[in-house]
Every structure is written in C-alpha cells, then in structure tokens.
Amino acid sequence: MKKIGFDSEKYLTLQSEKILERIDEFGGKLYIEFGGKLFDDFHASRVLPGFEPDNKIKMLSKLKDRAEIVIVINSNDIAKNKVRADLGITYDQDVLRLIDVFKSYGLYVGSIVLSQYSQDNEAAKAFACKLDKENIKVYHHYHINGYPHNVPLIVSDDGYGKNDYIETSRDLVIITAPGPGSGKMATCLSQLYHEHKRGHKVGYAKYETFPIWNLPLNHMVNLAYEAATADLADVNMIDPWHLSAYGKQAVNYNRDVEIFPVLNAIFEQIMGKSPYKSPTDMGVNMAGYAISDDEACVYAGRQEIIRRYYNALARERRQGKSSNESDKIALIMKGNNIDVNERKVVAVANAIEEERHCPVAAIELDDGTIITGKTNDLFGCSSSMILNALKFLAGIDDDVDLISKSSIVPIQDLKVKYLGSKNPRLHIDEMLIALSSSAEKDANAKKAIEQLPKLRGCEVHTTVLLAHNDEKFYRKLGVNLTSNPIFKDKNQAH
Hints:
This protein is 47% helix and 13% strand.
C-alpha cells in the first residue's frame, strides 16, 4: 500500500480558516487569485499522497455562502483555439465545463471576463454572444500599453479605468482561469482600482499550492514543481523580499519575485500603501502545515520528477522539439542523485525488453506487485499487460484465456481491411470491449472486468511510445504513464 503523507481534513480546515482570516484583515471584500487547478489537481495528489484531487474545490464549498467565482479567459486564446493538453479541449470549451463543475458543487459563478479583448476578435465576440444567450454575465478587459511596468498609465482612467467594472455580490471573489496567461492577476488589480475609486474596502491575495513556501527550497515536493514547470522556465527561489523584511527564508518562484516591485507600486498607487512586504505575504497557502509524513512526500516527489523527465522526453520526441525541458529536469535529477531506475516499472520493463527484443509494458499495483505484458500477434504490450494485471487481481490463473482467438481475429480483420489500420493488434479499448463481450457468458471474464477500478493511481512504464488512443485510455483509467522516447515503427512516427 502507498504511504499517506498528507492530511486532507486538516488541510481543508486550515485553508478555509486562513482565507476567512485574510478577508477580515481587509475588513471588506477579498479578491483571491487562484493559480493551478481548482479540481482534478493530480500533480498535488501525486506529490502529496493523501491530497485529494478535488481538495481545493471541497475547501471552497465550505465557503460557498460567501464565495463568488469569476472565470477569466484570454481573448487571444479563443481566437487561436488554444487547447488544454491534459483534456484535449479548447479554452473556451473548458470555460463552459468549469461553469458546470462549479455549479455541481453548489458554487456561484458570477461572470466571465474576456481579457485582452478587441473588437476585431470575431471569435471572442461570438463566444461572448454564446455566454449572453445562456444568461452568463460577460465583462471586457483590454490591452494596456507598457503593462506591467508603466504604473502611472496602468493605474489611470486610460489603463485599468478602460476595463469594465465587474459587478460582484459576495465578500470572497475567486478569480480563476482555464490555464496560464489568462490574466487572473490583472483582473484582480483592475478590480482593486475600480473598487477603491468607489470607496470600497477590498484586498487582494494569491493562492497557489506550489512551490510550498514553508518547505525548504530543495525539498523534493518543491523540486517536483520545478520539474513540472520546466517548459515555462520557472525557477524556485528564496524570496529576497521576505528575507529582508522578516529575516526568515520562504520559497517562492522567480516570476512572483520579479514582478513584486511592480505590484507594490500598483498597490501604493491604488491603495495609498501596500499591504504586503513580500510576494510570500500575498499567499494564503496552508498545504505545508498538512504534511503528516515528510518521508512519504519526499519519495513521492522523487517519483514525480522521474515521471516529468520521461514525459518531457516523449513530448520532445513526438514534436521534434529541442531537449531544453528534459535537460533542465535532468539537471535537477543529477543534483539530487535521482536515478530513473528508482521508478521500479522502468527497470523491470527495460530488462524484459532487452531479453525478449519486443515492446514491453510494466505496471506496479497498489500492493507493490509488478505485472508485465509484451507485444504479441493479438495484443499490443499495454493490452497484454492490463489483461495480465486484471487476471492477477481477480485471482485467475495466467494460463486461462479470457478472450478467445476466434473472437479477436474478426476485430483485426475489420481494423486492417475496412478501417485502414496498419496495426492489427488490439489496443486497450478494443481489448476491453472484447473482454466485455466474453463477460456475458464467462464468469472469469466478468470478474476480470470488475478489477478495472483497482488500476487507478498505479504506475506504468512502456519501452516504446504508445498510440494516441492507448495514452488517452490510460488517462481515463487514472494510471500514471511513462514511456521510453522510442517509436516502435515508422508509421507511428509519421
């Protein structure tokens, strides 16, 4: 069993209390910028074992009577049809998804902000019309020349003053977005400007889980975050403003540290005096106080760094990119004596491939057992491995055939003769459909299918890059996948 290193209940209590405390400090309304994912935060659940992926939205649900959500989307991302890589949907589609999810938790979504808006952006205008038809309030924020450094212009009627004032009705306003670069901070600061012009008491705070400010700079949980953001060139660092003000070390990241003098100047211009002495002061993150087993989190952080390394190698190989991202993660690994073979499935899969000379997949089950599968005439390595794992979990002898060859051949013929596939072997979804068909008459097949939920959270490594539909199915299963950056054939590379 995986060791638990994080106390979710303690976190939910501490975090909601901290946010309420920050509202009281400002004596009015608090605009809080939420970084990262409000739900489905699988990175946090991997590096803080015990952290539930929907912890943050559960925490907000505790405050739902006081909270209002504003979703910000960059109008340029709408025009570019920018896609969330993890979900495969565009940012504007994700906004609609977010609205539905928030409402399902009983949270009030007040409005949508289209940042960087321009009358020439037809796609953004069409999206605004769509939202309007669904009775969702839409506000427009505009590009400001010289942002963020031209403070006199920014904090004026020609800067933030040009933006629509967002009408809000609750004292906790959550500013969130479908992805980075949407304009969350600018939206918060614009509202501070408009609220102060109206004589309202308001404040600003920032909530991001990582890096965890009260863990050491080189703690594996913080280094795992640096590996996760290697493509953004983010770097964790000691907050020099916090050290100067309080004589205490706190961890932040370079972008917040670099922008703090500008933010301070904006605060002073808007509020007369800045409420904060450091970027760390702006934060309300309490995750560090809910770590219950540091050793478990250190181990989980090391594992996440290895996963991120393989994922970077795979992206670079598929997209023909330079090795900047993987090189940066490799440096983190070298500096902390992290070896890829610490990921047990990597060592096992590679050893069998070297012996058998064919693609291999390996999965580590919840109890530490490692099950493997190799490519054969009927199945790809992933399909073989999952079938073997389901047999093991169901207590079915390895020699038992759950899917007859006579039922597989027609599927292969369909793929090759009529669907133009060059690979007749069954992918994961195809194998599971065939297994489901057998389950109607075969008790063993039915028992095997029932084990699928037990694969969630397991670790998998394959010795070759997989087809898109296999990777997609692993995501649906909730499995943590890594692969060697090797194409198994020319057709796949194409």
